[in-house]
Amino acid sequence: GTPVELGCEAEGRPPPLLSWFRGVTVLREEPVSTGLRLILPRVEPDHAGTYSCVAENRHGRHNRSLQLHVA
Q1: What would the pLDDT profile of 33-46 be if each residue is shown by its tens digit?
Q2: Where in this chain does the record put each Ig-like domain (predicted)?
Q3: What's this model's pTM, rounded to 2 decimal places?
Q4: For residue 10, is it within any domain?
């Protein structure tokens, strides 16, 4: 029931589109030049799973994933 904040940062020219995914579902997406936060205000057991941040521009795509465990 407590909040969790996930952060993702990327730099590029042109600035990348940053996206947060849970599985194949897009949770948040913005063209930013610094970072993109994903805030889960009240974490429940069904929020557990794999979250991925993807940074993409015309030069390429890079991603990082994390596993969220809820006790």
Answers
A1: 779 999 999 999 99
A2: 1-71
A3: 0.89
A4: yes
CB count within 10 Å of CB 70 equals 14
Structural domain boundaries, residue 22: 4-54
- Given a cut of 50, the residues of the chain with pLDDT beneath it are none
Largest CA distance in the chain: 40
Instruction: State the pLDDT at residue 55.
Output: 95
β-pairing verdict for 35-40 and 49-57:
unpaired
Is 63 part of any domain?
no
User: What are residue 15's phi and psi, to 5 degrees?
Assistant: -55, 140
How do the residues of the chain divide into helix, strand and coil, expressed in percent and rounded to 5? 5, 60, 35
Flag whether 48 is in a domain. yes
